[in-house]
Design goal:
The chain is α/β, with parallel strands linked by helices. It is 37% helix and 16% strand. Strands 4-10-9-8-7-5-6 form a seven-stranded mixed β-sheet, sandwiched between helices. Strand 7, helix 10 and strand 8 form a beta-alpha-beta unit.
Length: 435
């Protein structure tokens, strides 16, 4: 790596990367174009972000028009028309009783915003002792200090452990290879794992707990699908003890599980939903926290001229991002994207489970258009096999993602059978070549 390479890539082995850079210069539809002119089929739809395909013409046009009309306006004590319109659209898609939308710029910011709203909610109701936040082992809620504290991926936490938030605990994760391996969709075993939350209510006393935050389907850690009845049980326990339930749907929202939100697909309504990624199809960074009327109403008190929540970002409700979001939601409707995703889900499941007996495979997991193939770790080199699959597929013209030894898939909502077949054929060839 020379001094000329100033760019420090996120979540990347930078020294290895700069020895053989992988650089994208263009994209269209379901394909990337590299800087050396190769076409790559994108098997991960951006980074869980671009379910409608890259450079969708209607979203591009909306961004171009908006940036030429209103590039930015102050967002404190003033707002713009697009932010108002987008909040109305998001609320209309959300589960009943969730009609308030607070805009952020990323999933990480959405997670921290939801946690702060939870603390403010209890304080406004006279329960300021409710400060403890509960996450889940193997959970991912972004990389800001709040989300990282409730997150449960060890590699994300260890370097920063001394500075993580106090007053945070974690319920156990939901995955057990011995009881769940090769489940199709939701495992039948494991609903009882939700009762681990009861353990923490006894340890800390429920009256001190503000909120529980979980991903309905844990994505970044390797596609951990909730057991049948698990999310319903979490909702019951939270209701019993007055704990707010936050669903982190940064990945699962906007069609990834064949519905506007996983809350709808699973039939469980939380108190808050965090989103980002698919909100704008990845075109402009933007996130949102969807808040229940109950939570919002608790904060709308005191003198009318006083700020109710001392929180926000310079770019909250950015007009260009909001224009991208409005166009994205319109395309979801016009192209019936969520129903199309649900329609190809059975084929996706069949193809990914064709690896149940493939070399090195110890588990296959799927839900909606989210899937993971877990490989056995090579002795003394954890993560090496997964990374080699990623590299071999990239060289062969297909982009997948690996998280350690788990190869992950997040195809476009309108993927074709041929595209899905090509993705998994490429992975099969890569696995066959591994030691």
């Amino acid at each position: 790596m020379s001094k000329d390479q100033a760019y420090w890539l996120p979540f990347t082995a930078n020294r290895a990367f700069w020895q053989a850079p992988r650089v994208i210069k263009a994209a269209r539809g379901h394909y990337y174009t590299t800087d050396d002119g190769r076409q790559l089929l994108d098997g991960f739809s951006g980074l869980w972000t671009s379910g409608l395909g890259h450079c969708h013409p209607k979203i591009v046009a909306a961004v171009q028009e908006q940036v030429a009309t209103l590039d930015y306006s102050m967002g404190f004590q003033v707002t713009n028309d697009k932010a108002i319109a987008l909040a109305d659209e998001v609320a209309a898609m959300a589960p009943a009783g969730m009609n308030r939308v607070f805009f952020t710029n990323s999933g990480s910011e959405s997670a921290d915003t939801a946690l702060k709203i939870a603390l403010a909610y209890h304080r406004a109701r006279g329960e300021s002792q409710r400060t403890r936040l509960i996450g889940r082992e193997r959970g991912y809620h972004g990389v800001n200090f709040g989300g990282m504290s409730v997150g449960g991926i060890p590699g994300n936490r260890k370097v920063f452990s001394a500075a993580l938030l106090p007053g945070v605990d974690h319920i156990r994760h939901t995955h057990s290879l011995s009881d769940m391996a090769f489940s199709r969709g939701q495992p039948g075993w494991g609903a009882h794992l939700a009762d681990d939350l009861e353990r923490l209510t006894l340890l800390h006393d429920a009256s001190n707990i503000a909120a529980l935050i979980v991903e309905p389907v844990a994505g970044s850690t390797g596609i951990l699908v909730p057991p049948i009845g698990y999310l319903q049980r979490l909702r019951e326990i939270c209701d019993k003890h007055g704990i707010l339930l936050i669903f982190d749907e940064v990945i699962t929202a906007f069609g990834r599980v064949g519905a506007p939100f996983a809350a709808e697909r699973f039939g469980v309504v939380p108190d808050m939903i965090t989103t980002a990624k698919g909100l704008t199809n990845g075109v402009i960074p933007m996130g949102a926290v969807i808040v229940s009327d109950k939570v919002h109403a608790a904060l709308m008190q005191g003198p009318g001229q006083m700020i109710e929540l001392f929180h926000g970002y310079t770019y909250s409700g950015h007009p260009v991002a909001a224009a991208a979001g409005l166009a994205t939601l319109a395309v979801y409707r016009e192209e019936d994207s969520f129903a199309r995703a649900r329609a190809i889900e059975p084929l996706f499941e069949e193809l990914i489970h064709s690896f149940d007996s493939a070399p090195h495979v110890v588990d296959v997991r799927n839900f909606g258009l989210m899937g993971g193939i877990e490989l056995s770790a090579r002795d003394g080199a954890p993560g090496a096999r997964g990374f080699e699959v990623f590299l071999k597929c990239f060289e062969a013209g297909v982009v997948v993602r690996n998280s350690g030894d788990i190869v992950q898939f997040s195809p476009f909502l309108d993927s074709t059978p041929d595209e899905l077949g090509r993705i998994f054929d490429c992975v099969r060839q890569a696995l066959a070549s591994l030691a």
